[in-house]
Amino acid sequence: IKGEARLAGPGRVRVTRDEEELELQAKAVVLATGSAPIQLPGLPFDGERVWSSRDALALPKVPGQLVVVGGGVIGLELATVYRRLGSQVTVVEMQGRLLPGIGLSRRGLAMLGQSLRRQGIEIKLNTAAVGCTKDGLLVRSPDGEEEIPCEAMLVAVGRRPDPTGLGLETVGIEPQRGFIATEEDFQAGTHIYAIGDLRGGPLLAHKASHEGLLLAELLAGERVAPPGKLVLPQAIFTQPEVGLVGLSEEEARAAGYQVVVGRFPLGALGRALAEGESLGHFQLIAYKGAGKLLGVEIVGPHASDLIAEAALGIQAGLTLEEMADTIHAHPTFPEGLWEAALAALGRPLHALR
Q1: For residue 352, is it within any domain?
Q2: Per residue in 104-149, pLDDT tens?
Q3: Annotated catalytic residue, options 191, 210, 328, 330
C-alpha cells in the first residue's frame, strides 16, 4: 500500500493516499522510518549550494571546489568520492580529530589522515562552520575567521530520526530527541514495535536489516526470545577503507580487561605489495588470559569485506590460537588477520617483534 501513514491507536494505522483515507488494523505495527541528515543553523539544505548527503549521492554536479562540513563517516566517505571525481575538497571538523565517536586507534587515524592528505584533501580540525558567504563558507578556528571559497558545501554532521507525524501520541509513546525506547524484543508499546535508526544505537543499514529479520522471526513464532548481544561490524568506505568490530584497545582497557594487541602492517603483506597497496594495518585486541578475541581494526583496501571474518570470530568466541590455527589461502588479504593473530601470540612470521 503506497501512501502516508500515521498511528491511530494501538494496532491501528491510518493511511492517506491521493484523496482517500483508509484504516488498517494489525496485531503488530512495526515502525521503521529511519533517519534524516541533521541541518545546521545558518546552513539550511537547498540542494544547490548547501547539500545534504542525499543531495551529494544524487550527483547534481561535480563542483570545482567542495567544502565538507563534518569529518565523520559520511563526510569523509563523500569527500574521497568527490576528490576522485575531480573536486578540490576541504574537510572542516569542529573537533580535534577525524571520525569523532568512532573507536579508531591513533595509528589508524594517522594512516587515514596521511592517505587523505596524499589524495589532496585539505583537513581543517578545531574549525566550525559559521555560515554561507557570497563566494564560499565562513569558518571559525582558534586562529580566527576565514572564508573558504567553494561552489558547493556538503553538511554531514550526523543523522537523527524525525518521528514527527507518526501519531506516537495516540499510543502513549514519547520520543527522546527523536528516538523511541524499546524492549529487547523491539516492543515500544501495545502492538507497536520499532527497529533501525528509530530505536537508537549505531545508525547502520545492516543493523536495521538484521533487527527487521529478528523481529519478523519473533512475531512469526520462529524465535521464542531475542538473541543475546550481537556483534556489530562497521565499514567506512573511505579511501582507504576502514573496518571495525568489537572493542577498541581503549574501550577494552576501560572495561577492565588485561589485553594483548597484535598488529600487522599492510606493507608486509604479499598480496598488498602485489597490488601496490602499502598504507594500512590489521590490529587484533584480545583478552590476555584466555586469548579470547575482543576487537579488530583494519585500515586498507577491502577492509569492509575483511571485517566479516573478524565479526564471526568475535561472535563465535574464538581465541587467538584458533585464529592462528586457521589456514588462510596465500596470497590473499585475509592473511593479514592471521599474521596479526600470530603477532599477538608473540610469534610473528613476516613482521619484526
Answers
A1: no
A2: 999 999 999 999 999 999 999 999 999 999 999 999 999 999 999 9
A3: 330
Q: Please calculate the CA angle 183-187-188 and round it to the nearest 5 degrees.
A: 90
pTM: 0.93
Q: What is the CATH number of the domain that holds 8?
A: 3.50.50.60
- What total of structural domains would you count in the chain? 3
Could you report the per-residue pLDDT of 32-53, keeping only the tens digit for each? 999 999 999 989 999 999 999 9
Question: What is the strand order of the sheet 128-132 is part of?
Answer: 128-132, 136-141, 144-149
Residue 136 near residue 67 (C-beta atoms within 8 A): yes
DSSP conformation class of 266: G
Give Cβ neighbours of residue 133 (< 8 Å, ≥ 6 apart).
147
Of 159, 186, 210, the residue that ends a domain is 159
Domain endpoint, select from 110, 143, 159: 159
Cα 350 from chain centroid?
32
Q: Are the C-beta atoms of residues 124 and 39 closer than 8 Å to each other? A: no
Residue with cell 586507534: 105
Residues 240 and 337 grouped into a single domain: yes
Contact 309, 327 (CB under 8 A): no
Residue-range definition of the domain harbouring residue 307 = 234-344
pLDDT band at 226 (very low <50, low <70, confident <90, very high): confident
In whole angstroms, what is the distance from residue 96 CA to residue 110 CA? 13
Which one-letter DSSP state was computed for residue 195?
-
The verdict on residue 40 lying in a domain is no
Answer yes or no: 330 catalytic. Answer: yes
Residue 83 lies in a domain: yes
